[in-house]
Design a protein that fits this description.
Mean pLDDT: 88
Low-confidence stretches: none
Oligomer: single chain
Number of domains: 1
Number of helices: 5
Helix content: over 70%
Distance between the termini: 42 Å
Number of strands: 0
Strand content: under 5%
Largest sheet: none
């Protein structure tokens, strides 16, 4: 398991950090792309250093461990970052929307003011995001095996039998 732990931790840290960095994390809107990248990175690092060909089970385990690490980072770092950056992100979104449709922007502004700066929705969003990061990281780990594993599967062939009974057969 130790040969899986290091690649999975690296993949999990990458997916967790990319998922909490403001503006970079917006790419997760596209099928939780950072989770898939983290799972695939873990599989890539494992395949690169593994003496045996990786299996789908290996990819799933690597993706799951990376997903747990990334989800933990999302919860521990992501919630404070979301609380700190929330007003900035709202203002940015409203300014972009004002250019496209001022009436819609005003309606959104009213909804934001009615919701306030409650911590509950931020925590619920972080929990939902953590589950999604886990699921998509497992998918990334599974996808990484056929992409990165080019060696033939299976165990090496057994050694030839030893002839102990002389030239005609076995004793």
């Amino acid at each position: 398991m130790n040969n899986k732990l290091k690649p999975a931790l690296i993949g999990g840290v990458v997916l967790g950090l990319l998922s909490v960095i403001p503006f970079v994390s917006a790419a997760n809107v596209c099928c939780c792309i950072w989770a898939i990248v983290g799972g695939m990175l873990a599989t890539y690092l494992y395949v690169k250093n593994s003496p045996l060909p990786a299996t789908a089970a290996d990819g799933a385990i690597l993706g799951a461990i990376a997903g747990v690490v990334g989800a933990a980072i999302q919860l521990i770092i992501g919630i404070p970052v979301a609380l700190a950056m929330g007003p900035t992100m709202r203002n940015l979104m409203l300014s972009l929307l004002e250019r496209a449709d001022p009436r819609q922007a005003e309606m959104m502004r009213q909804q934001f003011e009615a919701a306030g700066d409650a911590i509950g929705p931020v925590i619920i969003n972080a929990l939902i995001m953590s589950v999604l990061l886990f699921v998509f990281s497992v998918i990334g780990g599974l996808l990484g095996v056929p992409i990165f594993e080019k060696r033939k599967g299976g165990a090496p062939p057994p050694p030839p039998p030893i002839n102990v009974g002389g030239p005609g057969g076995y004793a």
